[in-house]
Write a structure and sequence with these properties.
Elements (H helix, E strand, L loop, with lengths): L6 E7 L6 E8 L11 E5 L3 H8 L3 E6 L15 E8 L1 H7 L11 E5 H10 L4
Parallel strand pairs: 1-3, 4-6
Antiparallel strand pairs: 1-2, 4-5
Bound molecules: zinc ion.
Length: 124
């Protein structure tokens, strides 16, 4: 258990890469020891992924379905660490599902799908 204090640090966590950003100092107004230095206060895209989002890309986040719990959501999926971004145009060519309409335009996918996508795209 991390030590708690009436002063802590809150972070916004990127739903795509889980990077912490926009860190802020938190203070318990009643001065009770309820806070730690590592608290998630918000979910939001980091600069890098905001830029890709603004360009219209769809984020694919690879998960291990066997190690993840149902229902799949950002809190209980086991991420393999692989990510890919594809254009909306390519997404519609490859997948037979609607473009994800969540705020991060993120879709979870099996790990090997990212490997397959990489064979389709020329490497830079
Ligand atoms: Zn990110």
């Amino acid at each position: 258990m991390p030590e708690k204090s009436y002063v802590g640090m809150g972070h916004t966590v990127c739903p795509i890469c889980t990077k912490k950003h926009n860190s802020t100092i938190l203070i318990d107004k009643r001065l009770r020891n309820t806070l730690t230095n590592d608290m998630v206060t918000d979910i939001g895209l980091c600069d890098e992924h905001q830029e890709l989002y603004d360009k219209g890309y769809i984020a694919l986040v690879a998960i291990d379905e066997e190690k993840s719990e149902l229902p799949f959501n950002l809190d209980n999926v086991y991420r393999t660490g692989k990510l890919a971004h594809i254009s909306q145009e390519l997404f519609e060519q490859i997948f037979d599902v609607p473009v994800p309409d969540n705020p991060a335009r993120l879709m979870m996918c099996p790990d090997d799908l990212i490997d397959k996508l990489q064979t389709l795209q020329p490497t830079e």
